[in-house]
Structure prediction request, 362 residues.
Amino acid sequence: MKNEIKEELEKLSPELIQTGNRNPFVVPEGYWEQMKEGVYDSVLMDREDLSVPSDYFDTLTDRVITKAKSKNESKIISFNFRKWIAAASVVIFFFAGYLVLNNTSAAVSTPDEFALDIDIDEAFDYLEDQDGLYLTDVLSIVDEFIFSDTDADEYYGEGTLDIVLEDLDEDQLEELY
Amino acid sequence: MKFLETKLTDQQLLELIALDKDRGFRILMQEYQEQVYWHVRRMVTYHNDADDVVQNTFIKVYRSIAGFKGDSKIYTWIYRIATNESLTYLKKRSNQKVISIDKKESPAVHLLSSDVHFDGNQAELILQKAILTLPDKQKIVFNLRYFEEMNYSEMSKVLETSVGALKASYHHAVKKVQKYIQEER
Prediction:
């Protein structure tokens, strides 16, 4: 025991000097190696989680560029198609509302019920599978039922048309008008 | 893995870790594992508990060593992590509802007599039982001072507490331990 510790204890508790400060605990045999391995295993698991294949960074740039190019091409086609399908779905909602407003068919649901029944993604999936859907068909529906029906906002909320129009680029808008 | 024969300075060890983290970490563990283990073991008393805490401590060291700026000694920094881990562990342990057969002694004190990893004589057993009755923070201060013979200035850095508060804490701890020992005789 260091003198500094002893001197302090002499004032506080001389008995503790006699007991001494030998370590009375022991560890199981082979513990130190086992403990090190336990820690290494844990930290190596960490490292494995963050590891990458040896050539990962060498090929990363090429893979990103290739992917970006192919994605870009497919995006142009599918994105535009999706926009128009979305527009067509909105047209269907408005068309249903129009029918209800004019009491042309008792069999059609109210606008709210109808809106709940149609999922835009389902509609997209369905229409994507159909052949012969042309942009001109969509445009004519839009022209006839959206832009001629000023009551639409009342039933479907203000700004609905703006949302549809926001999705269209300049060329498409020009074509629409 | 062949470890270096000569002891590295903190700066050299940090440089090695920056270059080769795994190799540097192995050297760091080789250097500090026993000190840290005994520090933790005195805190949590039982080997299996100490093993858990030490492993968690070194895993934290590995994960955060890159962010260690060298503001203090590596040893002080690791001790601080080990102390906090021990305190967290003790808090969890004390929250577990364990029914003690002997109302006077806590379950930890009761178990110490039959611990196969305790090799002390009767006086050392009573001393350890006395230490187990101390509040956690007093226990740390007592162990660091009495067993590890750490000076107050170093202890102040590890525990981030003023030297005056540590001296007062040690004084209270010694008095409580002495009282326990006298009652046991």
Observations:
- Chain B is about 70% helix and 0% strand.
- Residues 21-44 of chain B form the longest helix (24 residues).
